Amino acid sequence: MQSLFDQGASAPAPTSFNMAAHVLAHAERLADKPALIVMGMDGADTWSYRAMEAAVRGTGTGLLQAGLKPGDIVLMRLGNNVEFPIAYLGAIAAGLVPVPTSSQLTAPEVAKMVAELSPGAILRDPEIACPDTPDTPQIDTAALDAMRALPPCAYDMGDPDRLGYIIYTSGTSGSPRAVCHAHRAIWARRMMHEGWYGLHEEDRLMHAGAFNWTFTLGTGLMDPWSVGATALIPAKGVAFDALPGLLAAHKATIFAAAPGVYRKILSDHPDIHLPDLRHGLTAGEKLSETTREEWFEATGTALYEAYGMSECSTFISASPSAPAHPHTLGRPQDGRRIAILDEDGTPVPIGEEGVIAVSRRDPGLMLGYFNAPEDTAARFVDDWFLTGDRGTMAEDFYISYAGRNDDMMNAGGFRVSPLEVESVLSRHPGIETVAVTDVEIKADTRIIAAFYTGPAALDETDLAAFAAERLARYKQPRLFRHMETLPTNPNGKLSRRTLRETFKANS
Q1: Is residue 105 part of a domain?
Q2: Domain extent for 423
Q3: 79-105 residue pLDDT tens
Q4: Taking the model in full, what pTM does it have?
Q5: Dihedral (Cα; 309, 313, 318, 319), 10-degree rounding
Q6: 3-state class of 12 per DSSP?
Q7: 73: which strand partners?
């Protein structure tokens, strides 16, 4: 028996489609229902479905009046506030192509994106890092806020396969890649509603992340709105230790967060009383069995994990209707076609390890990398997209994770290429050679560490400041260690695995 899950394809998206129209399809029917509640410590800001759709479509009108036209790319440099999802959906409603980015990126990192994308405009919070762009207009938050009151734009309907939005992900080559997604990507996420969330119209889904994180944007906002549920998002500055209180006060029925958030909450609140919570969701990094068990002991609710990536969102998961077996990721969602492949692109026998792969025909799969056909083609073998992660499939299709094919790191739910960090640190005058990897400093906690050679050990404060000027916070090493030499394999290539193993042995 082969490691292949293929139990029927999902229904295709309508032939005339717009992602924003799909997300807000319930706005007229549920006009007065809360679509979004931004939860602060001193009160809440509530947006009804009527108000949210008006703001989104008014923003679409304003962007078109600013001279943008359907198909134009708009780079988003906005902070952790409601302007982010409104501008994102407003752009899509008008047929523009938004590019959401992390507010942690530095101006040099953003400058590379501007050079690659040639955006028609940048949507800009003045407090968020951004290079000067004399040839590209910047639309600030004051102008965006004023657009909300404009008449609603018509939804730009069209082929569901056309470009809808672009997101950046760390590439194995060391340079972040622009991943192009079609409008139909939101239609494909319906497979997650039962396959992971157990999501229904009456739910109140709270996401712990910032507005401008793609995990929050999809799981915390777009998906709840697409079924008519209420999204709950903590206001900027709300501390982790306040989250249990907000969950209880706002009667959240589903909670979504990265595994590290659950660990932090458990360390501060060993006993948590959440009578309305049905279950929790988690993704971004591997969930440990310890955290899963401790959360259940503290709350009496289960955690359901999902596995995915920027190129295809999540497609393997546990759910209330199909809980994960111990030490597994879960099973492929109904409607997916997933396999475990050998080096030749052939499904391996059940129980054998191989590369996790997604069918080229999956409606949630990316269109490709922006202006990079060769890089796109390199990720495919015949009918399969190769994730770069390894796993095994059991007879009941549950999949166990077996690590990466490469040295990609995971920092708090963000995938980071060691090559990108090494390229930056190698420019420090006191560093001769450098290797970067993630290391485990305590159970379930990993950090990015930089190992370097040079004439002498360097001041860690200086190294940290050097990295902070050039790298987003989540890419910056938390540990620096001077070494006489860096380990290599028999072929003379750098061995990051040896660094990790040596660090663990000496800790």
Answers
A1: no
A2: 409-506
A3: 999 999 999 999 999 999 999 999 999
A4: 0.86
A5: 160
A6: coil
A7: 97
